[in-house]
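Catalogue entry: protein
Contents: sequence, fold tokens
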Amino acid sequence: MSSGAEPRRANNVILIGKKPLMTYVTATLVQLASEPTVIVKARGKSIARAVDVAQIIAKRMDNMGYKIGNVKIGSQTIQSDDGRERNVSTIEVQISR
């Protein structure tokens, strides 16, 4: 039984972080094998990596029919270590077969 404090993440969401680029490409392709649509999410400095993941899948896997769908951009307000609030950019890229 999970605690109510941690939010549940959908199976079709890939959160981009600091791992190597191809790790996220592989994870996205694995999810696309079982899901019709996968959402790649990132914020801050990881946004460029999320765009790279989407482009690699769409361009290099072109014969498999993957397409980039809706792209949402926004910002989140987070509290930094020194207690000040700051805005961080976010992106969500939808990839489908």
